[in-house]
Amino acid sequence: MTPAPPAPLAIEPLAGPLDATVAVPGSKSITNRALVVAALAEGRSVLEGALVADDTSSMAEALATLGFPVACGPGATMVVEGTGGAVPPGPAHLDARLAGTTARFLLPLLALGRGRYRLDGAPPLRARPMGPLVSALRALGAVIEEEERPGHLPLTVVGSGLDGGAVRLPGAVSSQFTSALLLSGPAMPRGLRVEVEGEVVSRPYLELTATTMAAFGVPVERVGERGFAVEPRAYRATLFHVEPDASAASYFFAAAAICGGRVRVPGLPASSGQGDLAFVEVLEAMGARVGRRPGGTEVEGTGELVGVDVDLADCSDVAQTLAAVAPFASSPTRVRGIGFIRHKETDRIAAVVTELRRCGIEAEEEADGFVVHPGWPRPSRVRTYGDHRMAMSFALLGLRAPGIEIADPGVVAKTFPGFFAALDALGRASPSTAG
């Protein structure tokens, strides 16, 4: 019997300007990096403020299946028992579910071990590319069997250890491939040197990888403009604090820009290495005011927004957020440099344009981005395409315009299970609705 489709969620418009402090969950990108590093460290590591969501649960469960004990403590704490760089032998079957970071970060880790390790995921993850990482690992000596479509899950690693060395990797598809190799590089007897060829997309995520590794005692050396090297050495177990997720914060900063008033996100300072915090600079260019403080970041809407022409190659996860802000600007907005997001959870360029048009907003696809024109959204039921960021971004339209529904709100569990509760709390924080 076919299960009933999930009930759509109606978004309630806000009655007045905001005055809210929002505690967003920990960074997915940092949490999954820290989990891998902690598993390879010598001893017990504690991750405070970690994200507890589908993407990070898939990583924690996969590591536990491999034989790295991972326990969830009170609140958002994870405790990882590291093995000093030794990967428990196979066989093992691992399910990355829908998490690209889980699948990509695990593959080099598996190549360090001995035995057979099968890595798979849900159908949408099977559609996402793994080919450049597979090729790089084979160049380092790994044996990887492709069961179905070349360069895609499911994959079986026939592990016999991985010595390391030098390898080249294209940078235009995903920075996750380079990060994946670097995270496991210190456990390779010869260390690792990665030369990234061509355009490097999402460069701040490579810096995030290096920062996380350094916190566990392993520096990443920059070699020229596009090279990275790590020496063979053990990670040091540590108490590690995970920052709030800048991608998740973008929705609430956008809400302030759209609805007026202020939204503050504590714990996300201007010094953060998360590339998606650059979204506040885009909002500032559009007319919002931004407060940058050591203890957090604040955005204040001024009631006036203008369109921008912006390259988001280094922070592509906020492209959909900007697409939801753009209709309320007084001039068109063009987003460039993000052609690679056609290979994310869905084709995020096509999906954005399709759903904006469904909402009555004029928008056009371009090869590497999209253009959004000013307009007022009409009542519509927005499709999510199984993409958590489509649901969270397009919910913003409903904060201003009545009649917006999200067809599959449950997809937000991938990275932000409490998103709609937090969005609803914005209305309760509005001065005009505070009783």
Protein model, in words:
It is a single chain. The chain has 435 residues and is an alpha/beta fold. The chain has 2 domains: 9-25 and 244-433, UDP-n-acetylglucosamine1-carboxyvinyl-transferase, Chain; 28-228, UDP-n-acetylglucosamine1-carboxyvinyl-transferase, Chain (Alpha-beta prism), CATH 3.65.10. The chain is 31% helix and 23% strand. It has helices spanning 28-40, 54-66, 100-112, 123-126, 131-139, 176-184, 203-215, 246-259, 279-286, 319-325, 348-358, 388-395, 419-429, and strands at 9-10, 18-21, 42-48, 70-72, 78-83, 92-95, 114-120, 144-146, 155-160, 165-170, 192-197, 221-223, 227-230, 239-241, 261-266, 289-293, 296-301, 309-311, 333-336, 363-366, 369-372, 380-382, 404-406. Strands 2-15-17-16 form a 4-stranded mixed β-sheet. A 4-stranded mixed β-sheet has the order 4-5-3-14. Helix 6 links the parallel strand 10 and strand 11 (192-197). The mean pLDDT is 94.
Shape: globular
The percentage of residues in β strands lies in 15-25%
Q: Please mark out the parts with pLDDT under 50 across 5 or more consecutive residues, or reply none.
A: none
Radius of gyration from CA coordinates: 21 Å
Describe the biggest sheet? Answer: 4 strands, mixed
Structural class: alpha/beta
Helix segment tally: 13
Q: Could you tell me the CATH topology label of the largest domain.
A: UDP-n-acetylglucosamine1-carboxyvinyl-transferase, Chain
Q: How many beta-strand runs?
A: 23
- The first-to-last residue Cα distance is 47 Å
- What percentage of residues falls in helices of 4 or more residues? 25-40%
Strands side by side in the biggest sheet: 2-15-17-16
